[in-house]
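Journal club prep, notes for RB
We'll compare a predicted complex against what the paper describes. Inputs for the NAP case:
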Amino acid sequence: MIRVAVVGASGRMGLCLIKAAELAEKTTLSAAISRSASGKDAGDLAGIGTLDISISDALEKVLDQFDVLIDFTRPEPSMDYIELCRKAGKKIVIGTTGYTDAQKMQIAAAAKDIAIVIAPNMSVGVNVCFKLLKDMAKTLGDGFDVEIVELHHNKKKDSPSGTAVRMGEIVADALDRDYNQVANYHREGMCGERTSEEIGMQTVRGGDIVGEHTVYFIGMGERIELTHRAMSRDMFARGAVRAAGWLGGKKAGLYDMQDVLGLK
Ligand SMILES: NC(=O)c1ccc[n+]([C@@H]2O[C@H](COP(=O)([O-])OP(=O)(O)OC[C@H]3O[C@@H](n4cnc5c(N)ncnc54)[C@H](OP(=O)(O)O)[C@@H]3O)[C@@H](O)[C@H]2O)c1
């Protein structure tokens, strides 16, 4: 059994992760960390009955109690958790999104010492979409305009979503473009005609939408739309826990869900 700890235990994803880690076959929840729910029982907090796991207020205090940490929090605290795991030789699954390029480089550096799975979207379906997108972009080529639209709940902090950015990067790579040069996040007023290279990135925020992503390939006289709709957060949590089970036997390195699912 892989012993899993969850940081940000009281968050929307934290609660799903407690449940998923406890219910999965290869893993068991052994620790939970929260700023706002310390002292409570992790199982009671997640609504799955008492687990006799008292939530800690600091990762430092439970470093000897787990094999793999799962982090779905915010970039800033996450960087501290990654550093603590690196020093303690602990593996980590990172679902947090919104890192800066500098933070991404620090994560890659930490992966020289410990095994890390990082993915902006842990859903199996989205990762299959990533694979399909590469093939679609390569086959359709430059004759199709690409636009990406994502929808999320009104509490989401970062825009566009990490998943939408990853989709844009995959399409840009497949078309030999530099995503940072061709991503267009803003159209307003007399902004001119669309260039053939740009990838439009649009966001919609509202209500309780868990997450929807559509990539449009728009050609002359035809249009292809690849859409993924997330109905609940539980499948992200199941994907993260699957990654934790997979990571248990891995050496230091930077992995993603394509590695976990054997899609590479
Ligand atoms: N990769 C994926 O598949 C995937 C799927 C869904 C969401 N996400 C990402 O996961 C992250 C969390 O999403 P969420 O919807 O669960 O957010 P959330 O409900 O706001 O929960 C985040 C939790 O992180 C902890 N936290 C926040 N700020 C902190 C700070 N400054 N220091 C320490 N802890 C802090 C808090 O937990 P405590 O108070 O308990 O410490 C908070 O409840 C976001 O980046 C989101 O984009 C990724």
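Talking point for the session: The two ends are 26 Å apart (CA to CA).
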